[in-house]
Amino acid sequence: MREVAIIGCGMIRFGELWKKSLRTMFVEAALKAIDDAGVDRIDALYVGCMTSGLFVEQEHLGALLADYLGLAPIPAIRLESACASGGVALRQGFLDIGSGNSEVVLVGGVEKMTDTDRVTDGLASAADQEYEVFHGVTFPGLYAMIARLHMEHYGTKREDLALVAVKNHKHGTMNPHAHFQREITVDQVLASSLVADPLRLLDCSPVSDGAACVVLSSLEWAKAHGKTPVKIIASAMATDTLALHQRKEITTLGSVVESGRKAYAMAGVGPDQIDFAEVHDCFTIAEIVVSEDLGFFKKGEGGKAVREGLTGLDGKIPINPSGGLKAKGHPVGATGVAQAVEAYLQLTGRAEKRQIKDARIGLIQNMGGSGASSVVHILEVV
Ligand code: COA
Q1: Residue 346 CB: number of other CB atoms within 10 A?
Q2: Which InterPro entries has this protein been placed in (predicted)?
Q3: 325: number of Cβ within 10 Å
Q4: Which of 95, 194, 230, 319 lies 20 to 30 Å from 349 when distance is taken between CA atoms?
């Protein structure tokens, strides 16, 4: 495999973007990334998107977006792995360049979620239709079950979940691209509407529109052309059962453990060497579980870690400096790529007020559904 690097990034502010269509959002983010990378060639396009067919009745995104970017006839492919669609698009770009097939690739993610009245149904299509959705379970419901069991097994407190939201909203105030840029308090989380007990509105990632892009090239090409590369030192993916009841236990996400294990082995680093992480906090409990399953904390101690401030910007392992899905927003297909945007900004010292001091190695983790797929990338300053 050749060495692969990110050489530029671009995204639009996530939110309820009533005046922007799916293609407009994508083109805006893509042009920013191409401009940031300063490239005049793109050999292939990979775009992550989960629901364009369901929500805006538009399939065939690869060709459509290549056309609207003026990039046709390059090969262009849309990838789908539910909320991990952006992560798998990034992995596909990595493999394409690593194999020597392409030299400069545009990887993007996009989702238009607010132009539909069936967002909860559409998202639930990523759960097991026969064993879960048919019986009325939605994603807040599935994560609520994980939260309940985590609280019962490990003594995680309701307030610990709230503190994840409070921290990520605080980080969001420092990110001009975040959907929500306002602080919230534990009391506000605990008083927000109940969605699926014990999860409340402020424990949930929002329904957002948005797009994010990165440009990748081989490290050799980046150096030869005077770019600012951040090396991708690991790319790993793993899967699990869609249905929660088929897992041995639900407070550990097997795909996260496995994708993390493979990524650490590929990068030759362990959790202690990671300077910051962007993880998939679609619900507050998800950040706690993932922080344990990636080895940042012992099983059961993720809640305590948040309580002790270990995951804040100045903590032992800052988690979700961008504001995470909770505050930055979660236009599902764009999420995994937006994590790469944040890692690139952090590792090139451009994260402004939320800059993590001396950050050299960052980990990004993106997952689909209740963890049936998980993608982990590790990035390092060159
Ligand atoms: N976090 C913070 N604020 C939120 C929010 C969230 N997740 N969701 C909505 N809001 C705010 C809105 O901005 C609005 O504020 P305003 O009154 O100041 O304008 C207010 O809360 C009500 O918004 P509304 O759109 O009516 O909320 P809703 O009840 O329709 O939706 C949820 C709230 C939690 C149900 C929805 O955000 C949701 O389904 N989230 C989960 C998405 C999901 O499952 N993603 C996939 C994960 S696997």
Answers
A1: 25
A2: Thiolase, Thiolase-like, Thiolase_C_2, Thiolase_N
A3: 31
A4: 95
> Which of 166, 195, 207 to mutate for ligand 1's pocket (most ligand atoms within 8 Å of CB)?
207
Q: How many CB atoms are located within 10 Å of the residue 160 CB?
A: 23
Active-site residues: which are they?
83, 330
Let me know if domain 128-204+232-381 sits in CATH 3.40.190.10: no
Structure confidence by residue, pLDDT tens digits, 275-321? 999 999 999 999 999 999 999 999 999 999 999 999 999 999 999 99
The torsion angles phi and psi of 371, rounded to 5 degrees, stand at 95, 20
Cα 263 to ligand 1 centroid, rounded to whole Å? 33
* 4-117+208-230 has CATH 3.40.47.10 classification: yes
pTM value surpassing 0.90? yes
Residue given tokens 């006839």 in the structure block? 73
DSSP 319: B
Q: Which two tokens stand for residue 324?
A: 């995470």
